[in-house]
């Protein structure tokens, strides 16, 4: 094993081990090594691992893995974190960049002097209703792809929702075949104040449990609510733990056009450890 320099990042509680692609390569990281780095008892601890590699003067490639070692095309919170970190460690010259992901190229930028960032996501088809049996307190279930597949479920009582049990059931439902989806439960909750009336809780595939936040899932939820007249864009939506995202864009026909996501991309600490494969 050799020492690897790493950065522990968080996007509204959705946390990542981030690596500088000038010092390591994607080929160095087997699923076993990724699981070891993301282990919360014997590793750094994270929901996923990110490798950032410069591409040209103002471009960065974000390669993202879930904490079970599986690759994922996109993660909104990882992209917010990648934007702030790429600027901090000099992977790009300025605060705006092209972020290359397996789900397409995003225009991103740092916002202000702190830890906020914005992503201009690719246009996507509006969330479509899926035919699954509803449980008491559920109003509808929709499916959309915002970088990765998402299910959005409107519920009466977010606090009592069985996110893990119901999320696991829906994540593997044939309606989300073949690869499954992140399942985002959205409900009214004004306890955060500041005009924020909605929160989201997420069961995340690859993690196979509840995570503290999901940026692209929040975008899917915002457009699902907006299409049904429950919110107006732009809208602020909180994670279950109170971090607030802002989602902007417009609806044209059956498309979500110009979707922007603004949220946290904060570095918690950096360090060096024997976290690479032997």
Short overview:
The chain has helices at residues 31-38, 76-88, 163-171, 215-227; strands at 4-11, 14-20, 48-54, 59-66, 71-72, 96-101, 104-111, 116-120, 124-125, 128-129, 138-146, 148-155, 182-188, 198-204, 209-211, 235-239, 244-252, 255-264, 266-273. It is α+β, with helices and mostly antiparallel strands and 278 residues long.
Which characteristics define this entry?
single chain; 278 residues; alpha+beta; Diaminopimelate Epimerase, Chain A, domain 1; 19-stranded mixed beta sheet; 4 helices
Could you characterize the architecture of this molecule?
This protein is an alpha+beta fold and 278 residues long. It folds into two domains: 4-121 and 265-273, Diaminopimelate Epimerase, Chain A, domain 1, CATH 3.10.310.10; 124-262, Diaminopimelate Epimerase, Chain A, domain 1. Helix content is 15%, strand content 44%. The chain has helices at residues 31-38, 76-88, 163-171, 215-227, and strands at residues 4-11, 14-20, 48-54, 59-66, 71-72, 96-101, 104-111, 116-120, 124-125, 128-129, 138-146, 148-155, 182-188, 198-204, 209-211, 235-239, 244-252, 255-264, 266-273. It has a 19-stranded mixed sheet that branches. Strand 2, helix 1 and strand 3 form a beta-alpha-beta unit. The N and C termini lie close together (5 Å). The relative contact order is 0.19.
Mean pLDDT: 95
Low-confidence stretches: none
Supply the number of helical segments: 4
The ordered H/E elements are EEHEEEHEEEEEEEHEEEHEEEE
CATH homologous superfamily of the largest domain, by name?
A: Diaminopimelate Epimerase, Chain A, domain 1
Q: What is the approximate shape?
A: globular
Biggest beta sheet attributes: 19 strands, mixed
CATH class category label of the largest domain: Alpha Beta
The residue fraction in helices comes out at 10-25%
In what range is the share of β-strand residues?
A: 35-45%
SS class:
alpha+beta
Briefly note the CATH topology name of the largest domain.
Diaminopimelate Epimerase, Chain A, domain 1
Number of strands: 19
Number of domains: 2
Radius of gyration: 18 Å
The termini sit apart by 5 Å
Second CATH tier, the architecture of the largest domain: Roll
């Amino acid at each position: 094993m050799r020492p690897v320099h790493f950065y522990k990042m968080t996007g509204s509680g959705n946390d990542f081990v981030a690596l500088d692609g000038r010092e390591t390569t994607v080929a160095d990281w087997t699923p076993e090594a990724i699981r070891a780095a993301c282990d919360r008892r014997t590793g750094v601890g994270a929901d996923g691992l990110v490798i950032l590699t410069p591409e040209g003067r103002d471009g960065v490639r974000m390669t993202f893995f879930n904490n079970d070692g599986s690759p994922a095309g996109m993660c909104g919170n990882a992209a917010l974190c990648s934007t702030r970190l790429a600027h901090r460690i000099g992977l790009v010259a300025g605060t705006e960049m092209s972020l290359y992901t397996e789900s397409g190229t995003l225009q991103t930028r740092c916002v202000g002097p702190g830890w906020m960032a914005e992503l201009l996501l690719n246009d996507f088809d509006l969330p479509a209703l899926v035919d699954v049996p509803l449980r008491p307190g559920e109003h509808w279930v929709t499916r959309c792809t915002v970088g990765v597949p998402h299910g959005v479920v409107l519920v009466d009582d977010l606090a009592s929702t069985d996110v893990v049990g119901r999320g696991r059931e829906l994540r593997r439902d044939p309606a989300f075949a073949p690869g499954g989806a992140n399942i985002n439960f959205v409900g009214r909750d004004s306890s955060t104040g500041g005009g924020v009336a909605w929160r989201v809780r997420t069961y995340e595939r690859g993690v196979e449990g509840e995570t503290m936040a999901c940026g692209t899932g929040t975008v899917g939820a915002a457009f699902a609510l907006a299409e049904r007249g429950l919110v107006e864009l732009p809208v602020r939506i909180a994670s279950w733990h109170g971090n607030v995202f802002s989602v902007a864009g417009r609806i044209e026909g059956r498309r979500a056009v110009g979707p922007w996501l603004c949220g946290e991309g904060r570095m918690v600490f950096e360090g060096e450890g024997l976290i690479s494969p032997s």
